Amino acid sequence: MSVWDPRVYLQFAGERERPFWELVNRIPHAKPRLVVDLGCGPGTATVGLCDRWPEAVIVGVDNSAPMIERAGALAVPGRLSFVQDDLRTWKPTAAPDVIVSNAALQWVPGHVGLFEGWLSSLGPDGVFGFSVPGNFDAPSHTLLRDVVSSPRWAERLGGARDVPGVLDPGRYLDRLHALGATVDAWETTYQQVLSGPDPVFEWVTGTALRPYLAVLDHASAMEFSEQYRVALAEAYPSDEQGRTVFPFRRIFVVARRG
After folding, report:
1. 132 close to 106: Cβ distance less than 8 angstroms
2. Which of 16, 71, 181, 191 has its CA 20 to 30 A from that of 77?
3. CB-based contacts of 30: which residues, under 8 Å, 6+ apart?
4. Domains of the chain, first to last
């Protein structure tokens, strides 16, 4: 199994893309010439940057072949392109005016150490903006860690990749200030109202659950998923109208090059 599945990820496209646009709308650059979206996924949000900055060339970067294949169908020659690359080693071929990243850096070990290189690659008055989930202490993640560490799964899943940690807004601000940037950092907790059976499980199936499913055979993946699904249903019950509230904290940072 590939770690990333665009079809599954896009089940909640509206909710997943909302933080992207709230981030983009806080980026103070009126007319960038080159905009790079790091961790662009299936490109459905990236394509909207063509309207946000109609004079810019847009490049989406992601390390997932299935995601880039899906995004490639949205490419516009000379205007919008997609590249498969590892964010840990990616380097721009020209100086971007804006680098943006939504819900990707939490998957990149040591991502804070990459900030200096990305900032220095920007053109004059360039801006680097990103958002990451801040909900790793929420039941959606603590219950997953409980299941992974249980006697049934600990030996089999101990080597599976867990999500690297993220920092609080203030710590990101401090790190970027130390690099000479002017920084705006904030957080938002969305009270996401989801519908349908087991919607929180369906949500994490497209993200947090993927690295674990990728290392299990089909029968084991079904057993593991069911154990986790039951735990999530207890933690996130639906109301009489079938609505499930899924609080989701997001961290946002916008840094202008000094």
Report:
1. yes
2. 16
3. none
4. 6-256 (3.40.50.150)
